[in-house]
Amino acid sequence: MGEPQSHFLVLTFPAQGHINPALHLANLLATSTSSRVTFSTPVSVHKSLTSSSTHHPLITFTPFSDGYDNGFNGYNKDYTHYMSQLTLVGSKTVTNLVTSLSSEGHPVTCIIYTIMLPWAADVARHLGIPSVLYWIQPATVFSIYYRYFHGHDGLIDSHKDDPSFQVKLPNLPPLEIQDLPSFLLSTEGYMEWLDSKPPSSVVYVSFGTLAVLQEKQMEEISKGLELSGRDFLWVVNERGMFVNWCNQMEVLSHPSIGCFVTHCGWNSTVESLVSGVPTVGMPQWTDQATNAKLVEDVWGTGVRARLSDEGVVVVEEIVRCLDAVMGEVGVDVRGKAAEWKKKALEAMGEGGSSYRNMKRFVDDVSREINLHG
């Protein structure tokens, strides 16, 4: 095989729900097109990513700096300041990275970036390189954003304090205000523990990399899990097991997992569908409320936990949701989760819709590269 003609630089925000789908895309690009791929994340997550994974030989891992090379702690720092630093420092270091790759004889022919890195398009434009936004949220959310910024902002903003108001957008189910998006390692230990548990008996709890729950909410979840009497695996910084990080797809694919308590980030939502694991949704921000709406009311593969007047999901609600998914009344939910697993795997297989979309994307990028080449 000769030297690859195309060289994709894949840039991703330092969160598991962004890294996982971007890494999946990188592997598909290298495998299906024999293209060179440079996968770049901030320095703080680069080491753990490269040390815990094996990937296609055409993929190399090179970090960029976001200004927080030792990691960003969302518990005691300002996200607005972080995003400002990410834009300022990231723009400079990614520009230097592209220049360095070119001087080494591997010029970048296309930059692919995930959401929350809009400045990457400016970098690409400045360098005269085609760029592509990799949308890692559902098309439903993309449609809502589009409608909001094209004539529906006044309607939505004027009813934002009315929880009973329904927004009716073209080709979407009626959406209440709570359904709209806000604008704003090693497997050793936990996998052996899962191996010791009966099939579909364990509750998996994870709220992603960025969500910071109130102390009161953490207490209620802990009490609810204990009161439910069910085994659980909870990802946080002998009935349950607590871990700092885990390979989520590996955990969801384990036969002992019977439920996923999740913030409903799109990556987690898709992984639960592919694994056929029903969910209890506790959305926090951005697209997550809309994803929870899809899970409960459109697909029927899980339930959404309701907030109390204090703005937390209380113990009794957590127990109710777990029973609704894992108990006798959850037969229909579990059945639909199995159906959607089959649909998802068919879409990903050769000839499926996701497979065809990937081929179409690669063909479009190749044409763009040839135009600029």
TrEMBL record:
Keywords: Glycosyltransferase, Transferase
CDD domains listed in its UniProt record: GT1_Gtf-like
Cited Pfam families: UDPGT
Record-linked Gene3D superfamilies: Glycogen Phosphorylase B
Domain of life per record: Eukaryota
Example of a GO MF term: quercetin 7-O-glucosyltransferase activity
Protein family membership: Belongs to the UDP-glycosyltransferase family.
Protein name: UDP-glycosyltransferase 75D1
